[in-house]
Design brief:
Blueprint lengths: L6 H5 L1 H60 L4 H20 L18 H19 L47
Helix pairs in contact: 2-3, 3-4
Length: 180
């Protein structure tokens, strides 16, 4: 019986159980961390693309308005040229925004895009475009549901010519609880 009982194992018994529990917990945490990371990445990616998509749609809509103005009257050529320049630059920045998330490989890192820097540039160009158009910018973070004073993206300032006049109550609520 003395041959099967090792006193040295009793000394390290606590460390043995600690190591086994740590290994199990690390494996379990890795699996759940990957699952949570993917879900969080998907959510944040959607919020970013919601914002970038808004800027792209805004720029394309005003690009069509400026094209229609150029065909119609030639009264605001300087203002329209500035706005068209901002529109083209904004759309170019949106095109540069990555649409895929490549997994990083060893040795690569030269072609990385600084997403936060590019997003700041897009926001700045959007503000410049709004200033040249005389439109109050809507700057809300993606995923928020506040439609307060900042909610009117196409509300022109009183010193500029309006593109089209809005008639009636522009702040009406729909049956789904959305307000426009």
């Amino acid at each position: 019986m003395a041959d099967t009982f090792d006193l040295e194992e009793l000394v390290h018994l606590e460390q043995t159980f600690y190591d086994a529990g740590y290994a199990d917990g690390a494996a379990h945490g890795r699996i759940h961390g990957l699952i949570e990371g993917r879900a969080l990445g998907r959510e944040k990616g959607f919020e970013i693309w919601e914002e970038i998509g808004f800027y792209e749609g805004f720029a394309r809509a005003w690009q069509a308005v400026c094209a229609r103005r150029r065909r119609g009257d030639g009264g605001h050529q300087d203002q329209d040229q500035r706005a068209v320049h901002h529109i083209e630059h904004l759309l170019d920045l949106v095109r540069q925004f990555p649409t895929v998330n490549p997994s990083p490989r060893e040795g690569e890192g030269e072609g990385e895009v600084d997403i936060s820097k590019l997003q700041r540039q897009i926001r700045s160009r959007y503000k410049a475009l709004c200033a040249s158009l005389g439109v109050r910018p809507t700057l809300r973070a993606g995923g928020t549901d506040e439609a307060g004073e900042e909610g009117a993206a196409a509300a022109p300032s009183s010193s500029r010519r309006t593109v089209w006049a809005l008639e009636g109550n522009t702040r009406r609520s729909t049956t789904q609880g959305l307000s426009f």
